[in-house]
Amino acid sequence: DVKVTQSSRYLVKRTGEKVFLECVQDMDHENMFWYRQDPGLGLRLIYFSYDVKMKEKGDIPEGYSVSREKKERFSLILESASTNQTSMYLCASRRSQPNEQFFGPGTRLTVL
Amino acid sequence: AQSVTQPDIHITVSEGASLELRCNYSYGATPYLFWYVQSPGQGLQLLLKYFSGDTLVQGIKGFEAEFKRSQSSFNLRKPSVHWSDAAEYFCAVGRLTGGGNKLTFGTGTQLKVEL
């Protein structure tokens, strides 16, 4: 089975801190994704990566950056966390074929 | 641009009753469609997917969905709901060909099951 893991289930940070959310997948998938999930808004795509060192902006990239130095790892970075970035963050991965995405358990981030 | 509408934010059904969750999509080409389920505090799990072929697709946990191109719909159904089905359900649409590799998700339907 595909396994997507995220470094933390819960995280509390202060406004202005730099925050790193880590995601690792173990099935050699080419594509990886970061979403945020908010009540009533569903999942919104922040960034995705289709190969090592390759990235593309999703629908809401402002305030975020990403890094993919190795195929299995995709990091989401909040350069200067703000309270409006309090949310659930979900990582996903998939093969290059148009197949389903596999999701991690999520990281609930609170910015105080 | 593709979009997905799940018109029901909350649905409550009795255990043993039938269930239908609605999903309408907007996409200019042949879509590929998914239903995911999210239990509290968990990530999303795939219930079923449609790429092509038979428009009635079977998924896990006794769920099925029917693709109706004329209605731009992909409704999820289950003949008899179990208490463990209480969760949030998301419909998603993606591109079948071309680049992008992106899915667009609906806003979700929260299912409550009364015992």
Number of helices of chain A: 0
Please report the two chains with the greatest interface, counting residues with C-beta closer than 8 angstroms to the partner's C-beta: A-B, 24 and 24 residues
Average pLDDT over all residues of chain B: 91
- Overall mean pLDDT of chain A stands at 93
Number of helices of chain B: 0
Gyration radius over CA of chain B: 14 Å
- What is the helix/strand order of chain A? EEEEEEEEEEE
Q: Which spans of chain B have pLDDT < 50 for at least 5 consecutive residues?
A: none
Largest β-sheet summary of chain B: 6 strands, mixed
Shape category of chain A? globular
Q: How far apart lie the N and C ends of chain A?
A: 37 Å
What is the SS-derived class of chain B?
A: mainly beta
Report strand % of chain B: over 45%
- End-to-end Cα distance of chain B, whole Å, is 41 Å
Shape of chain B: globular
Q: Strand-residue fraction of chain A?
A: over 45%
Please give the share of residues in helix of chain A: under 10%
